[in-house]
Amino acid sequence: MNRRILLINGPNLNLLGTREPQVYGSTTLDDVVSSAKEQASKLSVHLESFQSNHEGAIVDRIQAAGVGGGVDAIIINPGAYTHTSVAIRDALLGVEMPFVELHVSNVHAREPFRKHSYLSDKATAVICGLGVHGYTVALEFAAKHMKIKDKAK
Ligand SMILES: O=C(O)[C@]1(O)C=C(c2cccc(Sc3ccccc3)c2)[C@@H](O)[C@H](O)C1
C-alpha cells in the first residue's frame, strides 16, 4: 500500500528563504513543498503539507493524523517549538505515529538553547544541518525505510 506522509512545518518557516539565507538558505517553503510533492509522486507516496505558527494548531493537526488511519508517518520541522513544546511531544506520543524530526540548520552548532529538543528522544530519526536537502532525505527515508505500523491489523 502506498505510504501516506504528513509534512509539518512550525513557526516562522512560512518565511523560509526570505531572511537569514546564511543560516536557512534562500529556498522558500513553497518551493520546498513543491519539490517534496514531486519527489513523493515519484516514490508513490501521498504527501500532505501543513504549516502553522501556532502550537495548538500543530497539536490539532497531529491529533487529526492519528484518527482514522489517514497518515502512516510524520516529518516535522517544529521550528522554535522544538525547544519549548511539551504539548507537541505529547501529541506525537499520543498518536503513536513514527516521525522524523527535521531541521534546516545544524541546531547543535548554534545557540545553546537550540541544542535541546523535546522530540528527539522519541523520533525515529533526526536530520539537521543539511539545509533544505534535509526535506528530500527525510522523505526518502519515510517513504522507503521507516518502519511504520501495519494498518491491516
Ligand atoms: O533549523 C531549523 O529548521 C529550525 O527548526 C528552524 C528554526 C527557525 C527559527 C526562526 C525562523 C525560521 S525560518 C526563517 C528564517 C529567517 C527569517 C524568517 C524565517 C526557522 C529554529 O527556531 C530552530 O531552532 C531550528
Which features would summarize this protein structure in a list?
153 residues, alpha/beta, five-stranded parallel sheet, 33% helix, binds the ligand O=C(O)[C@]1(O)C=C(c2cccc(Sc3ccccc3)c2)[C@@H](O)[C@H](O)C1
Description:
- Strands 2-1-3-4-5 form a five-stranded parallel sheet, with helices on both faces.
- The model has no long low-confidence stretch (mean pLDDT 94).
- The protein is 33% helix and 17% strand.
- The protein is an alpha/beta fold and 153 residues long.
- β3, α4 and β4 form a beta-alpha-beta unit.
- The radius of gyration is 14 Å and the shape is globular.
- α2 runs parallel beside α5 and α3 (55-65) runs parallel beside α4.
- The site of the ligand O=C(O)[C@]1(O)C=C(c2cccc(Sc3ccccc3)c2)[C@@H](O)[C@H](O)C1 has 17 residues, from loops.
Write the layout of secondary structure elements.
Elements: E1 4-9, H1 21-24, H2 29-42, E2 46-51, H3 55-65, E3 73-77, H4 86-95, E4 99-103, E5 125-128, H5 133-144
Parallel strand pairs: 1-2, 1-3, 3-4, 4-5
Helix pairs in contact: 2-5, 3-4
The structure holds ligand RP4.
If you compute it from the alpha carbons, what radius of gyration comes out, rounded to the nearest whole angstrom?
14 Å
Tell me the structural class.
alpha/beta
Major sheet: 5 strands, parallel
What topology, given as strand order, has the largest sheet? 2-1-3-4-5
Shape: globular
Tell me the distance between the termini: 14 Å
Q: Based on DSSP secondary structure assignment, what is the total number of beta strands?
A: 5
The ligands bound in this entry are: ligand RP4
Please report which band the strand proportion falls in: under 5%, 5-15%, 15-25%, 25-35%, 35-45% or over 45%: 15-25%
